[in-house]
UniProtKB/TrEMBL annotation:
<dbReference type="InterPro" id="IPR003838">
    <property type="entry name" value="ABC3_permease_C"/>
</dbReference>
<feature type="domain" description="MacB-like periplasmic core">
    <location>
        <begin position="25"/>
        <end position="247"/>
    </location>
</feature>
<dbReference type="Pfam" id="PF12704">
    <property type="entry name" value="MacB_PCD"/>
</dbReference>
<comment type="similarity">
    <text>Belongs to the ABC-4 integral membrane protein family. LolC/E subfamily.</text>
</comment>
<feature type="transmembrane region" description="Helical">
    <location>
        <begin position="376"/>
        <end position="395"/>
    </location>
</feature>
<dbReference type="InterPro" id="IPR051447">
    <property type="entry name" value="Lipoprotein-release_system"/>
</dbReference>
<dbReference type="Pfam" id="PF02687">
    <property type="entry name" value="FtsX"/>
</dbReference>
<keyword id="KW-1133">Transmembrane helix</keyword>
<keyword id="KW-1003">Cell membrane</keyword>
<dbReference type="GO" id="GO:0098797">
    <property type="term" value="C:plasma membrane protein complex"/>
</dbReference>
<feature type="transmembrane region" description="Helical">
    <location>
        <begin position="321"/>
        <end position="345"/>
    </location>
</feature>
<feature type="transmembrane region" description="Helical">
    <location>
        <begin position="274"/>
        <end position="300"/>
    </location>
</feature>
<protein>
    <recommendedName>
        <fullName>ABC transporter permease</fullName>
    </recommendedName>
</protein>
<dbReference type="InterPro" id="IPR025857">
    <property type="entry name" value="MacB_PCD"/>
</dbReference>
<feature type="domain" description="ABC3 transporter permease C-terminal">
    <location>
        <begin position="280"/>
        <end position="400"/>
    </location>
</feature>
<dbReference type="GO" id="GO:0044874">
    <property type="term" value="P:lipoprotein localization to outer membrane"/>
</dbReference>
<keyword id="KW-0812">Transmembrane</keyword>
Amino acid sequence: MNLPVWIARRYFFSRKKRSFISWLSILSMLGVGVGTMALVVVLSVFNGMEELNRQIFKTFEADMTVAPKQGKRFLASPDLLAKLRQTPGVSLLTAIAQDNALARYKNAQTVVRLKGVDDNYVQRQQLDSAMLEGKLLLRRDGVNYAIVADGVRSDLSVSPVDILTPLEILYPQSGQSFNVLNQDAFNREAFTVSGVFFIESKYDNFVLAPISSARALFDYKPNEVTSIEIQLRPGTNEDKAKQALQDVVGENLIVQSRDDLNLDLYRAIRVEKLFVALTLSFIILVASINIFFSLSMLVIEKKADIRIMYALGATRQMVRRIFLTEGAIIALTGAISGLILGVGLCLAQESYGFVRMGMVSSIIDAYPVRLDTSDILLTGALTIVMTILTSWFPAQRAANVR
């Protein structure tokens, strides 16, 4: 066995003499382990929150969205739609006409986000799992139906069972002076509510309706849209598809992926993740400083042993390696234990959901977690590097003992 490693093990694992320095080393190891475990768990929770938001957005938003760079509407010519359908990877196109409007139901009213969609929107099957009541229906037998969010249902006391009471949508006429007392200043469309959906609070003011009715409300031309939503075939490379679609639509329109539409939220999550990781790294650094003090005290305690080793022919490099190995034992034991416990807690949370969200309106019961190999490797490397660096100075001090 390597002599410096053997001596370092004897210093750390000796059971015959448990001094204050030994207990301080054990406490340092526990501090490193707890800090490492906390860092793994917190990073995994942030990864889970990011993945949860992706799943939420996937329920309502398309893979790709074509929108104008300036203004809020553009002309989607049949030629443009044909070229988009022929783009490799494209599965389904949905024309969208969307804007704010006023909704009335019986004696209640509220501002909603009216989203007019093509009939093929139902084929996307995105809202199937989000329906709370009723069914996903937009048009049947010449009757226009509306699908409302749970927030709209709560504000207006909408009942999909009541097919006799219409949901009335009002939108100011273009070219008319706005006057709430002038009833003729608004375009109106009436819908029968067919269903209620719930995703999360971001979409609680949405009302889905046929695009023909939305165009009539907004005074749009037959081919005018606010955006074109595109569903890709499974397995399609999103980056390549995005570039191909951008080449088709030209410079006046922009193609955005689902992540592009929610870039601010993802950026906020990552910034918060970074600051929390830095905070926990400082905690690990404090535990590493404890290793520095414990090794420094060990050097003082073992001065006689060091002199004996020098008398027996040991070199400064060997003595330095003994105390570096001592620090490495503390660091590796704490880091590996923390990583194992952190990964185990995350796997248990992912499987059984021990820690609950504590929110009645949450769409999930437990905190989401997602283990990322890069986070685990980075945490382990960061912990080991910090602890080894703090071990260097006491080891150098031991090597200078005469």
